[in-house]
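LOG
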Amino acid sequence: MVNSKIKFLKIKAIFKGDKNAFKEYMKDIFRGSRIRDVTFSALVNEFTDCADMYKDFDRAKNIVGSFTSTFEEYFNENLAALLTWQVPNKFVIEYLKNNLQYKDCNIQHLRTYYYTGRFTENLISRMEYVLQKEKDHAPIEALFTISEEIGLLGAKYLDYSLIKSKIGYALDSHKVGSLTIGAPAQNSLKFVIHGKKAHAGVAPETGINAIQIAANAISKMPMGRIDNETTCSIGIISGGSATNIVPDLVIIEGEVRSHNPEKLEEITQRMITAVEETVSEYTLDDFQATADIDVKTEYHSFRLAEDHPVVQLSNAACVKINIPSTANIGGGGSDVNIFNKNGLEMAICGTGMENVHTVDEYILLDSLPTGAKWVEAVIEEYSK
């Protein structure tokens, strides 16, 4: 369905095509045999699975070369396991004829890709259906943004002069009929702490440990959920080069989120102060530890009133197709933060996604047509 209906997205299935999994399985079975990695690569590229290998065992042994007897011994000892193990299928996902890169992809992940495509297909078909109706309807604009997950880049760099609409919805949430009408702002913080390098075994007293500075600074920071409007986190720490070297450089990266601008600024400043005060405590002779501090506003908060036209229109659409409607305040950022900042009054509407941002993400089948019908109902209600 994806391949036939969605031109920009293609999924190719290769039966028993996961050669990496095949090689790793064989290496595990033959652990201790001293057979080289390159030999296993040659075997899995030559045969589709172990049963295929067993059918032409002489050819397999020729590939193995000088380790033939060892290979035959291990193979026969593990014959049942080797012959019954199935090489996983491989799936290649192409977006605009470019292969998408992904990690640890299995059939569950592919279902998410597939059903996202199905939702898009149903959405577009419903919009086409409305457009083809004889009765008048309000103007419709459909916006597909890119690179949302890596920084809302599509929304940030959009030419908003191209958009005529004043209100709208972003399809990016859970249950169909639910709206997210508010989300926090986010500041990203990066601290680069400079200590003094020394040999950790010979003369540690001549160095200043940047990791120790970082640890003490973090211990003074607010962390986690501050209140019902505000959270903060340190998520990345990197530094050091060897255990026998007193590290002179550590990088700390974190964030602060809040629905309240004053609290966002307050917690951001408390984290900065924790680093500045801690660094000032570390001196050695004429050397003073320092910190480079960078704060970046990733996006601003937004909040729609519960009686906002966007909410009322969604409620009317839910009544029309007989599904419940809800409105809530979210804790994550999305394109909608950027849209609202640029004058597009929008809410996030549900599409049926569950367990989002996990390896178990999925979309309920029933939500596919329901979500598309909701879009149709919104258009019809707004056109009245």
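LOG (cont.) second protein
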Amino acid sequence: MKFKTTQEEISHAVAFVFSAIEPRGTMPILNNVLVSCEDGKLTLTGTNLEIEKSIVIEVESQVNGSITIQGKKFSDICKSLDKHSDVAIEVKSDKATIKSGRSKWTLQTLPALDFPSFSGHKNEIYASVSGDELIKSIDKCSSAMANNDVRYYLNGLMIEVDNNKLTSVSTDGHRMIVVESECKSNSDSVFQSIIPRKSVDNLKSVIGNAEEVTINFSSNSVSISVEGKTMLSKLVDGKFPDYRRVIPKSTNKTVIANTSELKAAIRRASILANEKYKGIVMFISQGSAIIKASNPESEEAAEEVPISLSGDDIEIGFNGDYLANAINHLEDPNVTIKLGDSNGSALIEEGNYVAVVMPMRI
């Protein structure tokens, strides 16, 4: 195998697939990047057996072939090269030689045939959605995804496709975020899948600035392809909770406050909250909300925010970080929070965005 390209092209491509590689993989081949050159097209692939990322770039090829190169060394070499420099890569026997200017590296390789393929994916359901809308959904939902929860089905993003509506949902059992987007799909019934957390973290690098993204689902995997970049991921095998039942149906109190003022007050009060639980108490009455926090060191914080209240006064506790984060995704200058009693969840809605924050006993 022998080809030429530029530092910018190869560095970007290697970095893209290297993000799918586990830094301490138990199998040596999983530390490698699969490099395949055929008729002017170079395909790079990285995998950890749960996620596979590949990218295709154009190169000046002289000899076709396939090999695998240790990913970190390959990535570090490409990043170290002068920008706008040319790069030549040649493979002979079991050695890969990388040349650029006066620099030269010779690396050990492993056979391409030993590289594991991501088999079994078959497109069944597809959804085509705006790239910008999908990135916004990921950004809003990411914070509410569980991390290493024993309820494994919470450790990811649930995607629901229902005709021309794509709904993204995440929850860690203490809060929930729901974002709806318009889409085009071939689904004639409700289809749900759970994308693992690590795959969700990688999605944005695939989407980039693409105007439209097509997501292809099978029963146990998902595929996303954009402008020469592809990511395949296994899905979480489990049933996601019925998120519609979590959204409060009966609320009799409505709080309206300035979004930035309320968020800042919660953040400031939370500085002296218990470090583990971040609990705050809100004393809400007509005209103002007093936000208090304390910790085991007998330190206290208090903030007062002007509000408008429809309904009776209420005293209610929340995790300050969760409530501030739910407010943080709002674009309107004023936030509307709907409440029931002190044991009920807070409901925050804006356009296609819904956040539910469970109360805390403090």
